[in-house]
Amino acid sequence: MKIYTKTGDAGETGLFGGPRVRKSDARVEAYGEVDELNACLGTVRAVVEDPEIDAQLARIQDELFCVGAELATPHGEKARSAIPAVEPRWAERLEAAIDAWEAELPPLRQFVLPGGTRTAAQLHLARCVCRRAERRVVALAAEAEVSPVALAYLNRLSDLLFVAARVANHRARKPETAWDPHRER
């Protein structure tokens, strides 16, 4: 099977089990952002040394493929039965991980600047990409039916990525840099 089909050369792509649409379509934008997020998590996994964080990210990458498939398949299409559904328990699992990780962290009393270890910096970047993906899915939801479970998952995932960045710094004994709004600039 060839990787190129030439069917997108005129600026259109086919939705899973659905019609052809412009590559600038809101649905394509939404699942494209989820794909970029997944790639960001791959870059984190290339540098992460913490096996617990890596295992969590590996599972999330797999789940993000399901989120992307959900977004790439218009509701009502027969193809919907061929893709795994995004499940509420996934967001609940993220919440449990957030709670467990926060228990080992000092309380957050102020904003922190993104950075620290290489892993933490990459996690902060992934968090930003996740928020952008979430915004694209919200925009899509304004014009088409979108799984509220997928949207909740992305929202919870950005929280997890923030906490994971803090954990990566904490476990590496790398202090976080607090944002000082009164610092002389």
From TrEMBL:
Report the GO molecular function annotations: ATP binding; corrinoid adenosyltransferase activity
**Which Gene Ontology BP terms does the record give?**
cobalamin biosynthetic process
* Annotated Gene Ontology cellular component terms: cytoplasm
Q: Which domain of life is it from?
A: Bacteria
Residues of the Cobalamin adenosyltransferase-like domain? 3-168
Please state the pathway this protein functions in, per its UniProt record. Cofactor biosynthesis; adenosylcobalamin biosynthesis; adenosylcobalamin from cob(II)yrinate a,c-diamide: step 2/7
The main location is: cytoplasm
Its UniProt entry gives the catalysed reaction(s) as: 2 cob(II)yrinate a,c diamide + reduced [electron-transfer flavoprotein] + 2 ATP = 2 adenosylcob(III)yrinate a,c-diamide + 2 triphosphate + oxidized [electron-transfer flavoprotein] + 3 H(+); 2 cob(II)alamin + reduced [electron-transfer flavoprotein] + 2 ATP = 2 adenosylcob(III)alamin + 2 triphosphate + oxidized [electron-transfer flavoprotein] + 3 H(+)
| The enzyme's E.C. designation | 2.5.1.17
Against Pfam families, the record matches this protein to: Cob_adeno_trans
Record's InterPro entries? CblAdoTrfase-like, CblAdoTrfase-like_sf, PduO-typ
EC top class, as a word: transferase
**Keyword set, alphabetical order:** ATP-binding, Cobalamin biosynthesis, Cytoplasm, Nucleotide-binding, Transferase
Q: Does the keyword rRNA-binding apply?
A: no
Keyword Nucleotide-binding present in the record's keywords: the answer is yes
Q: Where in the cell is it found?
A: Cytoplasm
Similarity field: Belongs to the Cob(I)alamin adenosyltransferase family.
Record's protein name = Corrinoid adenosyltransferase
Q: What is the organism field in this record?
A: Anaeromyxobacter dehalogenans (strain ATCC BAA-258 / DSM 21875 / 2CP-1)
